[in-house]
Amino acid sequence: QVQLVESGGGLVQAGDSLRLTCAASGRISNLAMGWFRQAPGKERELVASITWSVGGTYYADSVKGRFTISRNSAKTTVYLQMNSLKPEDTAVYYCAARPQSVAGYDYWGQGTQVIVSF
User: Residue 102 to residues 9, 25, 50, 64, 71: CA-CA distances in angstroms?
Assistant: First the structure.
C-alpha cells in the first residue's frame, strides 16, 4: 500500500506563490506521481506529473510556465511549486500515484485547499 499526505495549501492573493508538498510512504518504488485539482462544479484534472525513472514531467497547458513539479532525491516527497497564481487556480489539490506501467492513478491523498483571491 501507498500513503500520500499533502500539505501547503492556503489562501493567497493573485500573483502570489505557494508550494504544495506530498509525502509518500509505503511501497513507493516505481511510482509515477501527479498533482490533480478539482474546482467546485468542475471535473478533476491532471495539473502536473513526474515519472519515477528519469523524472520526466508533464504540465497542463493552463499551468505551463507557472507551476513546477519536482521531487527529492529519495523520491519520497513530491512538490508542486505554484507561481503567479490566478483566481482560476482555486481548487482542492490532490497528490496521486500510479505504478509506472499503469495509466490510471491508484493512490490518492486527502487533498489540500488552495484559494486565490483577486
Answer: 28, 19, 14, 24, 20
Residue 49 to residue 70: CA distance in whole angstroms = 9
> What is the per-residue pLDDT across 49-64, written as a single tens digit (0 to 9) for each?
999 888 899 999 999 9
Q: What is the pLDDT of residue 97?
A: 96
DSSP the chain: -EEEEEE--EEEETT--EEEEEEEEES-TTEEEEEEEE-TTS--EEEEEE-SSS--EEE-TTTTTTEEEEE-TTSSEEEEEE-S--GGG-EEEEEEEEETT-SS--EE---EEEEEE-
The pLDDT tens digits for 2-57 are 999 999 999 999 999 999 999 999 998 899 999 999 999 999 999 999 998 888 99
Q: What is the Cα–Cα distance from 15 to 92, expressed in whole angstroms?
A: 18
| CB-count exposure of residue 108 (10 Å: 0-12, 13-18, 19+) | middle
